[in-house]
Amino acid sequence: MEPLIFLFDFFYFSNMKIYVVSGLGADFTVLEKIHFPDHHEVVFINWLIPLQNEGFLDYVKRMAEGIDDSAPFYLLGYSFGGIMVQEIHKIKPAQKVVILGSIKSDKEKSRLIKTGQITKLPKILPLTFFNEKTTRIYSVFRKFFDPKNPKVLQYFKVRDPYYLKWSIEKIADWTFDEDPEVIQILGDQDIVFPLKNSKPNYIIKGGTHLFPATRSKEVSLILKEVFG
What we know:
The structure is a single chain. The protein contains nine helices and six strands; from the N terminus they run αββαβαβααααββαα. It has 228 residues and is of the alpha/beta class. The chain has helices at 2-13, 56-64, 80-91, 111-119, 121-124, 132-145, 161-173, 211-214, 216-227; strands spanning 17-21, 41-44, 73-78, 96-100, 183-187, 202-204.
């Protein structure tokens, strides 16, 4: 019977959907250079605009509605998307959860994010702060840390002020116990989620927070190993 079970598992898991959530304000563009295993189907879940005063769990449930859990599937998230897929995993468990440039628990937060959590600054900042001008200033700032990828703004597609403010508040407030089964991939030059705060399964040498775009070949090889 064992050979039959093996064959069943092989065919059952050989062609699965990989549901992907990109980074804060980003669409699939930042991940478009990554080559996912051909025998799996990649499904991108777009960010939703939060409802007024919507709780994080309610938002996660809405994001999870795009996932068909009647068959086994994988989850992959980048940056804030990494936080999101871990929350979705609690509602709709995946066979594997992979996070790129993200953290596995609130203990891995950077000093800046922890400061935001303590001071409640994201909540204090007015909605008008999260405008087009602020976005462009952020883009210029990021170029100093990622000169190999100067077109940062091209990845930053969801610019709704309420969504941005709401998301930053949720990242600052996020608390989560580490799931040892989550597979973490980090760049060793990431300033958003510094390597020193985590013990990732894979490290991208020379990778900044935008390593999925700048180190796509290395990421593709890792994902081929992880997803088979």
